[in-house]
Specification:
41% helix, alpha+beta
């Protein structure tokens, strides 16, 4: 029995730490699509496009594609986040991607985000994974959308 005591103590320390690391934070909002999204009242789609570009570039995201109804941004994942990103994709140099779809509605502009992570595998192939289920990534995108919406609400008052 004394042989198992050190192993038991180690497990008692490791298991709670591992469990704590795997607990995802709650989402900061509930949305109709389950994706990050907002509807911004009484605003033009071009103004929302410009504000999203400004916010994303301030956060070091690179604008890859742009149209009147779509914005695609990418950003290399570095630092501590790069480790989990490599585990998810199985590749090197993981890149986060955010695609915003903007739609004019009767009440304003609806913006819905789609979140992805991609990397190049050792065989040269590209791998892309949906990250809409990752609450950390989801909350970051939703936070940007909520800040964008707040910008227009403050400006209209």
């Amino acid at each position: 029995m004394p042989l198992f005591a050190p192993i038991t103590r180690i497990l008692l320390l490791i298991v709670p730490l591992a469990a704590g690391c795997s607990v995802a934070p709650p989402r900061i909002a509930e949305t109709p699509t389950g994706r990050p999204e907002v509807t911004i009242a009484e605003v033009e789609i071009e103004a929302v496009n410009n504000e999203l570009i400004n916010r994303m570039q301030n956060d070091q995201w690179l604008l890859e594609e742009q149209s009147a109804n779509m914005l695609l941004f990418s950003k290399e994942i570095t630092g501590g986040d790069a480790g989990w990103a490599r585990l998810i994709t199985g590749g090197s140099s993981p890149v986060g991607e955010v695609r915003y779809t903007l739609t004019e509605t009767q009440v304003g502009v609806r913006v819905v985000a789609a979140l992805y992570i991609s990397a190049q595998l050792s065989n040269g192939a590209d791998k892309r994974d949906d990250m809409n289920g990752n609450n950390n990534f989801w909350n970051g995108a939703q936070g940007i959308l909520q800040a964008t919406k707040a910008h227009f609400e403050i400006a209209s008052n």
